[in-house]
Amino acid sequence: xxxxxxxxxxxxxxxxxxxDNMIVIKGAKHHNLKxxxxxxxxxxxxxxxxxxxxxxxxxxxxxxxxxAQRRFIKGLSTFAKRxxxxxxxxxxxxxxxxxxxxAIEQKSVSSNPxxxxxxxxxxxxxxxxxxxxxxxxxxxxxxxxxxTLLYKNKxxxxxxxxxxxxxxxxxxxxxxTPQGMCPHCKGLGVTQKVDLKLLIGDESLxxxxxxxxxxxxxRENNKTTWPTGPLDIVFDHYNLDIExxxxxxxxxxxxxxxxGSGEEKxxxxxxxxxxxxxxPVKGIVTELTRLYYExxxxxxxxxxxxxxxFNTCSVCKGTxxxxxxxxxxxxxxxxxxxxxxxxxxxxSFIKDVYEHVPNSxxxxxEEIILEIYKRLSFLNDVGLHYLSLxxxxxxxxxxxxxxxxxxxxxxxxxxxxxYVLDEPSTGLHPRDLEKLVSTLLxxxxxxxxxxxxxxxxxxxxxxxxxxxxGPYAGILGGxxxxxxxLAAIKNNSNSLTGKYLSKTLKVNDTMYNNLENxxxxxxxxxxLNNLRSVTANFRxxxxxxxxxxxxxxxxxxxxxxxxxxxxxxxxxxxxKVEHYSEILGYEDLDKVINVSQxxxxxxxxxxxxxxxxxxxxxxKVFANTKYAKEHHMSFDYFSFNxxxxxxxxxxxxxxxxxxxxxxxxxxxxxxxxGGRRFKEEVLKNEINGKNIADVLDMDANExxxxxxxxxxxxxxxxxxxxxxxxxxxxxxxxxxxxxxxAQRVKLAKELSRKAKGKTVYIFDEPTNGLHFHDVSxxxxxxxxxxxxxxxxxxxxxxxxxxxxxxxxxxxGPEGGKDGGKVIVEGTLKDVIDSKESxxxxxxxxxxxxxxLIRC
Length: 855
Description:
By secondary structure, this protein is an alpha/beta fold. It folds into 4 domains: 3-107 and 398-501, P-loop containing nucleotide triphosphate hydrolases (Rossmann fold, 3-Layer(aba) Sandwich), CATH 3.40.50.300; 192-311, Orthogonal Bundle (Helicase, Ruva Protein, domain 3), CATH 1.10.8.280; 520-597 and 758-852, P-loop containing nucleotide triphosphate hydrolases (Rossmann fold, 3-Layer(aba) Sandwich); 608-728, ABC transporter ATPase  like domain (ABC transporter ATPase like fold). 35% of the residues lie in helices and 16% in strands. Strand 19 and strand 20 (534-539) form a beta hairpin. The radius of gyration is 31 Å and the shape is globular. The relative contact order is 0.10.
């Protein structure tokens, strides 16, 4: 073999002595990986574990999945590749044995409100087909029942009274098609209109002083115009004083301001000078409605939506479908009624349909019914039995969205795929883990390789192969510490994971909880979504764990009722909160801080340094150097959001987005700046041999040491380390952070501020993405907050956090319609003693009562 050919083989990862049943990786040096080499068995369930930032995701997603994707794209035609652009090869010397790869990550499945659980899994497609095949309609004239199939290819009329009946195809049962959507609400199920109660604020004020909420205080803003023209001209035309309070203006004039002047035209001066222009006043309501519907920006639409009320469509009653579609029934149920069922209810319904479908149409419906049943069963198997088929995709959590996609993959008959999953156990109660494990094993048994980044012990127990990466995060990680069976990991003395699995190390759940105080925060009558007039108590200056199976009502109670209510009372917010009767005990609190898992930004411009406020301080240091002063470089030059200093080609993003019409968009490194974001002259300015791009490329550990002489910068970076994020880079794109990492960045931001008063912190599953060792560190932070007099309310499934809590509110008993109640609230012993509590049972199984109940 020629030297040139051998080099080509090595560079492209082609193994001339290929091991058919193995994925072979040699010399992986991407990010913090230290020349990693390993072999992974194909068609097995493989778990990658290790502390946060150790390099698990880099190896799984940035090496294995990325290289598989790159090779797929390389196989496209030259023409197709032109629209894709150049995809960078991961920093790895050699890979063989790769199969096509599909990543199922914890990211939003869709931002489109028309996307639902049913559409994502194609269950809705099969339901529409079923209703068009065997659905029964009722003639509006004589009430005769008509089988849809009977008139499809015959006369479109009632066989009894001969009234014309519109033939219905599958498309007529979709709210996303012109044929099927309700013509009044355009298939949304709700109608929006400007709400004068939200639009008009203090009626004792004039418009200039802020009577119209949309305008705000025009006097402070130094404005006297709105989108339709100068205000003073409108007032002058009707001989009214612009300083008049809104409530004292004539009703007829208020209507002109709100709805426009109709055919009456006013004389406006031309923008270009000279002649005047005659035109009517458009009106605030008219203009606001137009802007709401015409904008393509979701952010802008939300801004306008705050002045609107959303009401159930009076025509379709919220079903989104046309009158004709809602007239068709199977088993006395319309397709809208079936779509609003939970997965568990829909399974019972489809079973009943299967058993009672007439023999005359059984053959043409059997395959459809079985396909629907199979897909519903897969959703049930991944612990999503409580979701309804019409649940909007944007409202799904990251974990729910991931499991919906996982269920959809189970429905396919594809084999020979490498599935890559990021913490599929996220959001699952310990009770439901067994079903998830069974699902992963089904994927494997179909002839696929399933690679999972995971920390859950239950999933590790069922893995065929485990890879432990570490030993720690960032530059202290990136090595294979142990690999093999569960026993091999447990017996490896170098493995931090092994020490926790073998119980040599344990998560320290000793927590400061002020159990002597009898001060509680109490919410009464909460009835949002599936909540059943819930009353719940939360002990102050204590770690309160809110537990329960998926869909039991935890988020409805905390994130959507208690949190916005406390924000109104303590933070002077203006959230709309209706589903409760009373709240008590908040007088002992000063503010509420919600530490959510929402991204800290949605573009490569957002990063941890800008979010926590340390980047501005760093920029000031660079702007104060001798070089910067000599070259007249102000503070603005050291921001990649400023035209003055950023790279003009990528506009400071360091990457350029390539739109791929058949795959997700891909970001590639900017050729001009090499991903460094700044102009060359800006990068010549250095501090101790490092420029601004070098600093952004440092992790928090390195940067903390680099800026040790700058106290205000050093202290903030120390807090990042304290919350276990010493490994993340200051300039790391926010889009690459997991939900758990984003949550801890937010926590670091709050901890770096000077504490004022007593705060209630609200967390939604803060242990997402955390290794046993990371959970220990998180509990140290919690302990510190409690000792400072604060209160913590944490939605959580992690048993170590639950055991550390001084007060537990356990919800259930099941999810969806079978949940929404407080099963038990009190101490850990109270929860364990409750016969109805699944949480209590899970805790019981982990350790003996003697170890749990501390005096």
